Amino acid sequence: MNKDNLMVVDGDLLDQKVDAIVNPWNRNLIPWWLLLPQGVSGAIKRKAGLAPFRELRRYGVLPLGGAAVTSAGKLPYKAIIHVAGINHRWCSSETSVRKSIASALDAATKHGFQSLAMPLIGAGTGGGSEEDVQRIIEEECGRNLFNGQVLIVRYKAKGWPYGPCYCDLWNKSPVTLEKQGVPRGFCGLCDVCGEPGHLLHFPGAVPFTGAWCKKHYYRAMILHPMGGIGFFIWGLGALLIIWILFMLFKGKF
Length: 253
Prior knowledge:
Layout: E1 6-11, E2 20-25, H1 39-48, H2 51-57, E3 67-70, E4 79-84, H3 94-111, E5 115-118, H4 130-143, E6 149-155, H5 169-172, H6 174-179, E7 188-189, E8 196-201, E9 209-212, H7 214-223, H8 230-249
Parallel strand pairs: 1-6, 2-4, 2-5, 5-6
Antiparallel strand pairs: 3-4, 7-8, 8-9
């Protein structure tokens, strides 16, 4: 593979403009409906739906480092390449990562894909370090005959509230939100100042969901007694007042 066709990018795997993406999977021994996919697999399940995982089950148990190609469901890709990068103990190794990369690239060649995006397979849940996994992927790509473009995606969450809306409400109801003046990527207007924001549940408080911009959401977290930070501030303040009152009146009882 031409090294000029290999790029390392920071971002979200599901935002890449490629023909296919690689999903770090397991050996496919346990039925998908008994699992709660996390990380990349969880994000794929939320956005692609269940169709790719139902198709994946038809492949049966995969050899360690093996690959299975399915449709992309609701995602805008030609396919998803699932690779068995971890063993039955949910651990990865250099061998499993190398075989997974080779299998994914061979599958991309076989299906005629011209571009491929893959995460750091075996890092995170698999226990591998990001640096080692990236080095292994780069080495395996250099050895493979795949002549398309490969993006190695190092996950980097976009800062709230400037990243894509986590509930994806804008893409589900763009016409309605546009009429309300909500720009792409957001799902509401802040109840306090009217700036673009997100519909978020107020953590720790009574059941309440409102629209918040970043500024007023974190301000509420600090100032409200039930806010994530305010809970500790107000709690410490209450304890301090109790201690002061105890010290003032302890001699009078």
